[in-house]
Design a protein that fits this description.
By secondary structure, this protein is of the alpha/beta class. Helices cover 29% and strands 24% of the residues. The two termini are 24 Å apart.
């Protein structure tokens, strides 16, 4: 690691400690946004803030060059009651840093910031934007969705999430369907009414048995799971309404809108998606960044967990220090060596990259 990269790594660790000590639950990230803005400003970066999203454009910007977005998030979930450490304590024990958001995704955020600042002094044949955004944990409207329309055209996104610095080159999308089957009330003792529950059962059987034709090598098939159901008011009344919820995880072959349309064509129930913007993502194995990662010994895989990739229409990879298995768990932690190694690997991935 160069002297500059080493210096930026130590600054990144100190910034992460500050971030952990500062509460940043989703939609309440104003204080950590201020910390991030001040950090970038102290490095003379061209920095901006909108709501709780903070981003910087490289001072080496050249119009017409391809543009890479470095993105991670600074919001956290709320800590559970089973924490044995202070979630905001940022406890350092040897190589281990314990605290809320340390792994998901504070380590990635500060590592990408350090990488951005490194390339401010080592210009490349592409433009760089580094954006640390809000509301990722709740897929909120004031996070990356709000920021993307404010940015120049982007050709490639690197999304920082804990992947042990391997490359997630595909990610499943999510669409939640609220379904309502309709019938007519009647007395259960007589052959009256039209049972909405039976109609729902027929539709549920379709959800259980239907198989989408296109199966992803990385993500597998589209998966539909009925997770909630509610019907009826009393034992002797045929229900005229049955509501149920379907969790759908999409692969890269189907947009969420296409899945919703297909479902509507095959079930009797009314189908309303809660949203359709959390789409699956995919980047070709042949992409120069993926090829460079493979040359550096990185594994490629498909990710079942959702990230802000789902709202990006350009090619993206998900890669960052830490381990997804630690996310949202009591006593969440990151190893300081993972941050240093992550910064080093990000630099290797981007240095000399030709898009």
């Amino acid at each position: 690691m160069s002297e500059l990269a080493s210096q930026l790594s130590e600054e990144a660790i100190q910034l992460l400690i500050q971030l952990i000590k500062t509460q940043s639950f989703s939609r309440e990230e104003d204080q950590t946004a201020a910390l991030l803005y001040d950090f970038l400003q102290s490095h003379q970066a061209t920095v901006f803030r909108d709501a709780n999203n903070v981003w910087a454009l490289s001072k080496n910007w050249v119009e017409g060059r391809p543009t890479i977005l470095l993105n991670s998030h600074h919001d956290t979930v709320k800590p559970g009651a089973s924490w044995t450490y202070n979630p905001f304590g940022a406890t350092v024990e040897g190589d281990k840093l314990t605290g809320l958001g340390s792994n998901d995704a504070g380590a990635s955020a500060v590592s990408l910031l350090a990488t951005f600042l490194y390339f401010e002094q080592h210009p490349q044949a592409f433009n760089l934007i580094c954006a640390i955004t809000a509301e990722e944990e709740v897929s909120g409207v004031n996070g990356i969705r709000r920021l993307l329309p404010l940015l120049p055209q982007i050709d490639l996104g690197i999304v920082g999430e804990p992947t042990q610095m391997d490359l997630a080159i595909a990610e499943k999308g999510l669409v939640v369907l609220d379904c309502v089957a309709h019938g007519k009330t009647g007395h259960a003792a007589r052959n009256e009414g039209e049972n909405a529950l039976y109609k729902a059962v027929a539709d549920i059987h379709w959800f259980q048995s239907y198989q989408f034709r296109e199966v992803s090598p990385m993500l597998g098939p589209v998966k539909m799971t009925v997770t909630q159901i509610q019907a009826g008011t009393q034992h002797n009344v045929v229900p005229d309404r049955c509501q149920f919820v379907v969790d759908v995880r999409t692969n890269e072959f189907y947009s969420n809108e296409e899945v919703v349309q297909l479902v509507r064509e095959n079930v009797q129930s009314d189908v309303t998606p809660r949203s359709t913007h959390l789409n699956s993502s995919h980047i070709a194995l042949e992409h120069p960044l993926v090829q460079k990662g493979v040359q550096l010994g990185k594994k490629t895989f498909g990710s079942a967990t959702l990230s802000d990739q789902s709202m990006m229409s350009f090619p993206t990879v998900k890669i960052g220090p830490g381990d997804s298995a630690r996310s949202h768990t009591p006593d969440e932690y990151i190893y300081l060596s993972e941050i240093r190694g992550g910064i080093n690997d990000y630099i290797k991935l981007l240095d000399g990259l030709a898009l």
